[in-house]
């Protein structure tokens, strides 16, 4: 069976007022439009053409959540738990109401995720930079007390990155934070050599979130600029924040977020530090191949798989196993099943194939992303994973 899915954009404050409208070829709504969810997560299940929502079809067993994401300003710095951490946190908070402001865990699942750029560029902060490189970056700032204290703490023995992030977010570094942000702002207005692009980006973050200690946390992170079609995978425990741009995002079906700055929302510093992975290093960029119509984005988790298909008039047939989504992001695309069902899919909406389908044929002239369970997901022979 083939279903047509849509959903209303979520109006988070960081959303863009034009990117989703531009993708879909409609007038802007006048409100920020941040995300469109395609999935059966109870937080916002997709609408099914003809009536009802997707969770009524799947029973809430879909292992992934597909999104369009449009960032007009920086998102909060955040991290997501492993499955073990999520189950433990969910159990510890079982006595709290679902909407309790003290709750950190919204379900008992992990949330690894993949973002692929749809805009010409997509800016993010992804993972922690190796400390020696950050010490070199600090050379581009002034030799002030705040910068000196940050340098001293980063050079201390032990897990310096975890200790520094705790110091910054814990409230005792208020004077140093203000001092460092002033230096970042000044550096963003001059040539800072190899760090010019990074410092200008973080100065922009500081302008959006003045005085927020997350600005200094951002100074510790890798500044990654994706080009259209490039992607980055973010594993559990990896600190990250999207800064600007339009992308297709896919993740395990979870809404578990621990925040680390750039937000008015609650930050539970001890819980954040308990799940944070402070192993530094570059986050590899997944770059599309220039050959053929199909680009695969390999990820090391079983919850989801994603590929991009560029159509130029010749049909493309893909074998499918498990519930599969086709999200159209450009042009005119028709999706047909082996059983003879067919849907023309408009840009910004999804054709959803239920688990009984064995193949999908895409035709037309345009671009689409195909999302499906990974090879070893519960949908492929193991016990189903249900949302808590």
Write out key terms for the chains shown:
nine-stranded antiparallel beta sheet, 10 helices, 19 strands, globular, alpha+beta, 23% helix
Description of the structure:
With 388 residues, the chain is of the alpha+beta class. The protein has ten helices and 19 strands. It has helices at residues 19-24, 54-58, 83-92, 131-138, 145-154, 160-169, 174-187, 196-208, 214-218, 269-275, and strands at 2-6, 35-38, 47-48, 64-71, 78-79, 113-117, 121-128, 221-227, 231-234, 240-252, 258-259, 285-286, 294-296, 305-312, 316-319, 324-337, 342-345, 350-353, 359-372. The strands form three sheets. Strands 1, 3, 13, 14, 15, 16, 17, 18 and 19 form a nine-stranded antiparallel sheet that branches. Strands 2, 4, 6, 7, 8, 9, 10 and 12 form an eight-stranded antiparallel sheet that branches. Strands 5-11 form a two-stranded antiparallel sheet. Mean pLDDT is 94; it is low at 377-388.
Briefly say what this structure is:
With 388 residues, the protein is α+β, with helices and mostly antiparallel strands.
